[in-house]
Design a protein that fits this description.
Layout lengths: L6 E4 L17 E4 L6 E3 L4 E10 L4 E6 L2 H4 L3 E3 L2 E3 L6 E8 L6 E3 L4 E9 L27
Antiparallel strand pairs: 1-4, 2-10, 3-9, 4-8, 5-7, 5-10, 6-8
Length: about 140
């Protein structure tokens, strides 16, 4: 396994560093960095983390929801942070289902940050593609 450095800049003194909850966790927890509580509702809101990151070229960071929050009706949008982005990491969040509102407090764990190595891809125009059993079937075509 190749180790890389994820450079993290605190944009506010009280911002928390991303951290793994357990040694086997694939994601690093992201924390809300708030001056006051934020009440989430069904309309998406961008929640600040108080940090900016720098990834090596050839990597990206993926913002993913926390399963514990999703189970309570609180969603964080999937997002991609490219290696050349230097702004604050923001997490778009909202409530769904029977959860009308949810209060976020400073320091709450709000999402996970997963680092991924990018494939070296060259886009090639093709006049046809190989035939597979599935073919053009999508959106539930392989079963329930």
């Amino acid at each position: 396994m190749t180790r890389i450095d994820l450079l993290v800049q605190k944009l506010r003194a009280d911002a928390r560093m991303p951290e793994r909850a357990t040694p086997g966790a694939s994601g690093l927890d992201l924390h809300a960095c708030l001056e006051a509580d934020v009440v989430l509702g069904p309309a998406p809101q961008r929640v600040p983390t108080g940090i900016a990151i720098e990834l090596p070229v050839g990597y990206d960071a993926q913002v993913r929801p926390r399963s514990g929050l999703v189970a309570r009706g609180v969603m964080a949008s999937f997002g991609t942070i490219d290696a050349d982005y230097r702004g604050e990491v923001l997490v778009t969040m909202w409530t769904f289902g029977d959860t009308a509102t949810y209060t976020l407090r400073d320091g709450d764990r709000i999402a996970q940050l997963v680092i991924a190595r990018l494939a070296d891809v060259e886009v090639v125009l093709a006049t046809s593609l190989s035939v597979t059993q599935r073919g053009e079937g999508g959106h539930g075509s392989t079963g329930r």
